[in-house]
């Protein structure tokens, strides 16, 4: 037998083995770690899609909240898990930021990109006590009333923090930054007027906006969001550097066989296509982004590069 034929047989054998592995997998429940508390975007996505994926995979996909250290507890547990596809995590933008701001964060190479789920717009929430009609009015007010207003953030180095820094850099306004342990606490003080602005996910802002408890002065995205058609995008208002949405996706530990990765990716894409899932995700502003594992891999690398620039520009170093 020639060497070429022998090589061809080996390749065919590997393909058949991979196909058999994918057909046999899973044989037990899959754990889907949620890096943040119940009610967050990661949590909603994990529970909505996990339930749908269980139908396709034939095994329960069990969502488990494992919050802490800006999401790093769940991310680290996933990175250290066996590369068999039975432990996944709902990763998000916080991970891309943590790589450049939190010491000990597992590198991108420690993970297998499985499926990009979607992107969630960010908004600029403003207290009703702030006498500004839109973001341009707000900037003029902050310049005229130096030191009289502040901005809350959902953490010391999260997306909301960097968006607040970006606003200061783009406009030259003076604005005290008040960090909170989470967005929930920041919103409470925003409603009470103790803080004046807060960049927060659409999912957080929508209930308060629709009830008239806060004002919205902008959203991320190339055009206006269907949930807030009367609110201009940051790009439309002339503030393109504020156009930084949040992403969500399923990740596993490095080394998961491609056949299993493809099986999970297929289940995730099917879950994203169901009417019930689409409705629930759209209701909190998430724009589904189904695709291949390779698509997600390329996205993660680009997102990581973008955040490296943003963090450096903000003068933040690894803590």
Features:
18% strand, globular, 2 domains, 11 helices, 11 strands, 319 residues, D-Maltodextrin-Binding Protein, domain 2, alpha/beta, five-stranded mixed sheet, six-stranded mixed sheet
Structural notes for this entry:
- The chain is an alpha/beta fold and 319 residues long.
- It folds into two domains: 27-120 and 245-313, Bordetella uptake gene, domain 1 (D-Maltodextrin-Binding Protein, domain 2), CATH 3.40.190; 122-242, Periplasmic binding protein-like II (D-Maltodextrin-Binding Protein, domain 2), CATH 3.40.190.
- It is built from eleven helices and eleven strands.
- The protein has helices spanning 3-24, 41-57, 72-79, 93-101, 135-144, 159-171, 183-191, 202-210, 258-272, 275-282, 293-313, and strands at residues 30-34, 61-65, 87-92, 111-120, 122-126, 150-153, 176-179, 197-201, 215-219, 246-253, 287-288.
- The strands form two sheets. Strands 2-1-3-10-4-11 form a six-stranded mixed sheet, with helices on both faces.
- Helix 2 (41-57) links the parallel strand 1 (30-34) and strand 2 (61-65).
- Helix 2 (41-57) crosses helix 9 (258-272) and helix 4 crosses helix 11 (293-313).
- The longest helix is centred in the first third of the chain and has 22 residues, at 3-24.
- The N and C termini lie far apart (60 Å).
- 43% of the residues are buried.
